Amino acid sequence: MTANESAISEADWRRATELIRAAGTLALACHVSPDADALGSMLGLGLALARTGKKVVASFGDRVFAVPRLLRFLPGQHLLAEPSAYPAEPELMITFDASTMERLGLLAPHAGKAGELVVIDHHVSNTGFGTVHLVDPAAASTTMVVEELMNRLGLTIDREVATCLYAGLVTDTGSFRHSITTPAAHAMAGRLLATGLRPEEIARELWDRSPFAYLRVLGTALGRATLEPDAAGGLGLVWTYVTRADRAAEGLPYDEVEGVIDVVRRVDEAEVAVVLKEDDEGGWNVSTRSKGAVDMARACAALGGGGHPRAAGFSSALSAADTMAALRPLLAPEGSRP
Ligand code: 5GP
Ligand code: MN
């Protein structure tokens, strides 16, 4: 594939636009514990379609259904419904930023029974679980794929829709810092800014505000960070964890600790950074990052998760120590594996 050639075939684009044009009702779903790319791509397309008179229902399959506080500023929240109110056998279902059927959580059975299932994603590990696939691993965010779909559908991208798409783009590019930051990503940002959206307000909502309790919990997590210089084939590992007791002591909800990894990953002495986050049920959600020498998508996939080469995750029912013991042997740098 050349740089100019999309991973998505013309036949898939045509099929997706035909299905969406023909459908009266659209059932949209993004991955569980949605981030800005998952929710932004879903609500952006949902808003634009709803404005053309389509009936739109949007959801995600978490057992406790709640939009993370950081993402409540996204327009289109009125389109959201709890999984219990989601159509059991949707005529047309569209998924966003989910690399596997399992990532749909409670909505996976609905996807299994959908008449047609359009999968929109940018994970290279996408398993192709739909009937039509708009999956482009070269896209910096799922919202980039959604923007092209909207253009092909002739939908209007106004400031509210653009806010949703921009939130996904800035999040998944790490504010245009990550290696995936292509000319196309900046060009899209330019088009979205031209709608009049407020980048400073979006940045503040996403990264620059927290309750005071976050400082306390962050301090606890950083205070117990461990550096293992010999791990990851000698390139180094830094890791820490946040327990539910840490959060309960300060009254901090789970979704407030997503940003801890962004502090931990800055350590010069470590190729790999890991943050284990205990949820309210006692399970661990593990965020991992590398600087490029270790393929985190591969390591996390081996433990039942997935993601991108430099940013991936998985869930674990083991203790924090046992989870790290399972992960450490998987951190061999590229080229050093047998
Ligand atoms: P984060 O650490 O920010 O939660 O996730 C980083 C990346 O890994 C994201 O692209 C996210 O979709 C992916 N990811 C995180 N947790 C999981 C998981 O349990 N399963 C899969 N398949 N991907 C995950
Ligand atoms: Mn994404």
Automatic annotation (TrEMBL):
<feature type="domain" description="DDH">
    <location>
        <begin position="29"/>
        <end position="168"/>
    </location>
</feature>
<dbReference type="InterPro" id="IPR051319">
    <property type="entry name" value="Oligoribo/pAp-PDE_c-di-AMP_PDE"/>
</dbReference>
<dbReference type="InterPro" id="IPR038763">
    <property type="entry name" value="DHH_sf"/>
</dbReference>
<feature type="domain" description="DHHA1">
    <location>
        <begin position="250"/>
        <end position="319"/>
    </location>
</feature>
<dbReference type="InterPro" id="IPR001667">
    <property type="entry name" value="DDH_dom"/>
</dbReference>
<dbReference type="Pfam" id="PF01368">
    <property type="entry name" value="DHH"/>
</dbReference>
<dbReference type="InterPro" id="IPR003156">
    <property type="entry name" value="DHHA1_dom"/>
</dbReference>
<protein>
    <submittedName>
        <fullName>Phosphoesterase</fullName>
    </submittedName>
</protein>
<dbReference type="Pfam" id="PF02272">
    <property type="entry name" value="DHHA1"/>
</dbReference>
